Amino acid sequence: MSPPRTPVGVRLWAKVNGRDEPGDDCWEWMGLRNARGYGRIKVGRSSELVTHRVAWELTNGPIPDGLFVLHHCDNPPCVRPDHLFIGTTAENMADRDAKGRQARGQRQGRARLVESDVRYIRSSTESQRELGRRFAVDRTTIKAVVERSSWRHVP
User: Which residues of the chain have pLDDT under 50?
Assistant: First the structure.
């Protein structure tokens, strides 16, 4: 029989850097992290949880269904409770947009156009169908560019 596992709270706080330092700097998780930098901690035999959610629950109680634990500091490994807050999907997206963390246009990886294409499309007198053929995109993509429902960040 294996010895009892150390409680998750003890294991979590043991791997946090900065907890004992004065000031309001982040408390960074120093253990395993996922590809996006969020801390991971094993709970039970096979489950892993993100550490900022565990930190929230240890200090504030259960996270209501459908809500997320967000970071004021935008630092994924941070588990400092006063750097965390609860929010909806919409609040998470609004926070992301307000802080400029959303990749837009050609930076987002799936773009088939670049900013110079968008400027050309908006100034062109060609039909949307012709522009679609020229840039190898659907006419609805051209329409969204012209109407500024996409690529809004491009003047």
Answer: none
